[in-house]
Amino acid sequence: IFFKVIEGCAWLFGTVTLKYLTSLVFGVADDAHIGNILKSKFIGYKDFDTLMYTCAAEFDFMEKETPVRYTKTLLLPVVLVVFGVIIKRVTILKMRLCVSGRNEKVCKYASVSCGFFSFQLVFHALQLLAYSVLAILIMRLKLFLTPHLCIMASLVCSKQLFGWLFYKIQPKTLVFAILALMTIEGSANLRTQWNIMGEFSNLPQEELLEWIKVNTRQDAVFAGAMPTMASVKLSTLRPIVNHPHYEDAGLRTRTKIVYSMYSRKPASQVKRDLMKLGANYYILEESLCVSRKKPGCSMPEIWDVEDPANRGKIPLCTLMSKDSRPYFITVFENSNYRILKIPKE
């Protein structure tokens, strides 16, 4: 056991070291923020990029409703039974085979046979644990956990694991009973989804996009919130400064500059930085200036962590909503959006 612990620690240390050295040699910085996100989960570390992630519900801890839903559909109970049987089966089988060996060669052969039988099951069991940890830490990563739970649940049909039970109950009967019980909650979920009727409508954004297409040049460059920039690029084909691929290191840097409009920095400094990026227009969203999904998660509060020197001042976005002059010129305004033209010096 002591040797296995040392081996595991060496593997972990070697993996982290190799990753660090590889990133250092090739200058890879795209995933540098992942370590900070994990630090924020355990020690409360905060910076601009980390808060941009953790303030979103998708990157928060897994919500309580998820395991409840897994349980109601019987997915989680079935997987726990399968997982327990795998651990018990592999452990007992290996002990019996090794104990039954009369000499070292027989024991070694028994271990190889056991390993051949159990390798795939053990691999998937460990994979399940890894996906579970990821999903608990970052709710969005349920996208790996849920399919793997379904794969593990299918092992309830395995004769290698449940052959002892199939001598007493017909396999088809057991599987049919489990599926029938799952169908009770599953059919309710389907009916809930089928009853959702309607269509997407965002009139303020439609007005914004129509104004851009009619009143700006084809080469006019826009900056603003990442989701809005994706719509501007898709619908108007105008060049944009930043977009939602926040995992790219260069885009993180540019987006941070763009989002300084929601900080408490001086307007002259923000304008100067936007001009360096080549932006001609800025799309200001007043909702980002005041919205607060949870404590400490409004854009001005996020900037207070990054820029404590200006803490206590009125946010720039608030000032721009009242009067954008003399550094910016308001050329469009509706209930949600305000387009600020960035005049050249």
TrEMBL record:
Q: Which UniProt keywords apply?
A: Glycosyltransferase, Membrane, Transferase, Transmembrane, Transmembrane helix
* Topology term for the membrane: Multi-pass membrane protein
Pfam families, per database record: Dpy19
Q: Write down any Gene Ontology CC term.
A: nuclear inner membrane
Which residues belong to the signal peptide in this entry?
none
Family assignment from sequence similarity: Belongs to the dpy-19 family.
Protein name, UniProt field = D19L1 mannosyltransferase
- Origin species: Chaetops frenatus
Which gene name belongs to this protein? Dpy19l1
